């Protein structure tokens, strides 16, 4: 009996690990999915390893082209091999068509070891800087949620941006902040209600020194449901030849110490005196890793603003001198090992008060608009098909009238205590190394075999 049981166990093991039969053609092996990235304390983690954004901004043709580079394999297939040459682990895309499938390009990025940081807005579906109230409406949120639906399925979707440079130098542009923060809140709630993995949601701020810190504090104040998962900003203050101190980056590290959320640069790469990409040495050094989680160089393709490192003409790509300079810098300054001195707990900050620079109008320092009533059904029904890049647009669909959100707005049906804003566990902790479970499985197997031999 024992011999029969042992033979059966070994036979089952051999069947489980059998290769394809002689008549079945074995398909080329696809790379395993990248480990999902989570926000924990003031850092990102891929699996149980600290993750640094070492990337590039990518929107060939610019926003005026209205083209989704991740829905066309001719485009992404042309450029992904060059991303690998550069040594990047992340790309940022500013606009995608949420009506199309992105499986092939996302799989190609995954196979290349590359994550995506994605803006959920498009030129016709976004918060208008001059008329924010009417542009925050159900049609807008439907488009945002449809983008989440499409990209949440890919493990290499690293994070979503709820807005990009909506707040800038313009007078009264700060009055857009409550609507962008409400969108951030709504996105986080939608992800929770739909049962998706906790993909980080945050904001990409303009390179505006006058209101940078107020903006950062605003997106990290309030209840657990209102705060962002991270904060990013564009920074062109390091113009070579420069240094950590000469550029003023040392002061920014000091300003953000104790901020309590992951921070990274959503754009960097001053072109004033040419570029040697020496910023990477500082970004990957002990001077910054306790506060910053890397950044995205602006940008891949040469557009009207002339920040690109390649010139694209149809299927032809010409690498400029900056391409090899960037590849050299990324190779010379790799991501550090260890945890980089990150802070394991998260914390909120006080909302900035109204002054001559920071003015949120009728909303005051902390109040937010409630989600439009017509959008509430998406939480249970889903967003449905996205309108795509050629949709009619949403910016003038609302009447501009909004109720004030209650204290529990943004709370999904099952969540942590909203008062527990200092609990890192509420925003995710680095996952336990799965290797221990593999070892446990092997031990269990031999224990069973040993038992059968008794």
UniProtKB/TrEMBL annotation:
* Bilayer-spanning residue ranges: 434-453
Keyword Membrane among UniProt keywords: yes
| InterPro entries listed in its UniProt record | GH, Glucanosyltransferase
Any one biological process term the GO annotation gives: fungal-type cell wall organization
Q: What class of enzyme is it?
A: transferase
Keywords assigned: Glycoprotein, GPI-anchor, Lipoprotein, Membrane, Signal, Transferase, Transmembrane, Transmembrane helix
Identify the domain of life.
Eukaryota
Report biased composition (Low complexity) as residue ranges.
405-416
**Subcellular location, in the record's words?**
Cell membrane
- Note down the stretches annotated as region Disordered: 379-427
Pfam families per the record? Answer: Glyco_hydro_72
Q: Which GO terms describe its molecular function?
A: 1,3-beta-glucanosyltransferase activity
Which GO cellular component terms, listed alphabetically, does the Swiss-Prot or TrEMBL entry include?
A: plasma membrane; side of membrane
Record-listed E.C. numbers: 2.4.1.-
UniProt entry tagged with the keyword Nucleus: no
**Quick one: signal sequence residues?**
1-18
Describe its membrane topology: Lipid-anchor; GPI-anchor
Q: Which family does it belong to?
A: Belongs to the glycosyl hydrolase 72 family.
Q: Which PANTHER family match?
A: 1,3-BETA-GLUCANOSYLTRANSFERASE GAS1, 1,3-BETA-GLUCANOSYLTRANSFERASE GAS5
Q: What does this protein do?
A: Splits internally a 1,3-beta-glucan molecule and transfers the newly generated reducing end (the donor) to the non-reducing end of another 1,3-beta-glucan molecule (the acceptor) forming a 1,3-beta linkage, resulting in the elongation of 1,3-beta-glucan chains in the cell wall.
What is the protein name for this chain?
Answer: 1,3-beta-glucanosyltransferase
């Amino acid at each position: 009996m024992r011999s029969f049981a042992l033979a059966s166990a070994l036979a089952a093991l051999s069947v489980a690990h059998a290769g394809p039969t002689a008549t079945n053609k074995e398909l080329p092996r696809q790379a395993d999915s990248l480990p999902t990235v989570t926000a924990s304390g003031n850092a990102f983690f891929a699996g149980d390893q600290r993750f640094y954004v070492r990337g590039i901004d990518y929107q060939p043709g610019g926003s005026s082209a209205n083209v989704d580079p991740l829905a066309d394999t001719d485009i992404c297939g042309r450029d992904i091999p060059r991303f690998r040459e550069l040594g990047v682990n992340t790309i940022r895309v500013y606009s995608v068509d949420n009506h199309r499938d992105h499986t092939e390009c996302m799989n190609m990025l995954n196979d290349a070891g590359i994550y995506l940081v994605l803006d959920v807005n498009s030129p016709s579906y976004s918060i208008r800087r001059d008329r924010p109230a009417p542009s925050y409406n159900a049609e807008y949120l439907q488009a945002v949620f449809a983008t989440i639906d499409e990209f949440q399925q890919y493990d290499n979707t690293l994070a979503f941006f709820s807005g990009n440079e909506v707040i800038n130098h313009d007078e009264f542009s700060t009055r857009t902040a409550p609507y962008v923060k409400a969108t951030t809140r709504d996105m986080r709630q939608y992800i929770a209600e739909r049962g998706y993995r906790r993909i980080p949601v945050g904001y990409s701020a303009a390179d505006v020194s006058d209101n940078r810190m107020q903006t950062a504090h605003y997106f990290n104040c309030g209840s657990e449901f209102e705060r962002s998962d991270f904060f990013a900003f564009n920074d062109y203050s390091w113009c070579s030849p420069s240094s950590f101190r000469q550029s003023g980056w040392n002061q920014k590290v000091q300003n953000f110490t104790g901020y309590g959320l992951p921070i990274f640069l959503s754009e960097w790469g001053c072109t004033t005196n040419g570029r040697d990409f020496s910023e990477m040495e500082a970004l990957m050094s002990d001077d910054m890793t306790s506060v910053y989680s890397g950044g995205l160089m602006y940008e891949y393709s040469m557009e009207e603003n002339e920040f690109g490192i390649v010139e694209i003409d149809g299927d032809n790509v010409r690498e400029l001198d900056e391409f090899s300079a960037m590849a050299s810098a990324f190779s010379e300054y790799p991501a550090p090992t260890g945890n980089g001195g990150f802070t394991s707990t998260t914390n909120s900050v006080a909302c900035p008060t109204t002054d001559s620079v920071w003015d949120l109008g009728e909303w005051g320092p902390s109040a937010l608009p409630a989600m439009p009533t017509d959008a509430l059904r998406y939480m249970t029904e889903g967003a449905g098909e996205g309108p795509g890049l050629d949709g009619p647009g949403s910016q003038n669909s609302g009447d501009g009238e909004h109720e004030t959100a209650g204290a529990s707005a943004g709370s999904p049906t099952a969540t942590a205590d909203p008062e527990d804003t200092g609990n890192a566990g509420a925003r995710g902790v680095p996952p336990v190394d799965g290797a221990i479970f593999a070892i446990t499985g092997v031990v269990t197997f031999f224990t069973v075999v040993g038992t059968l031999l008794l």
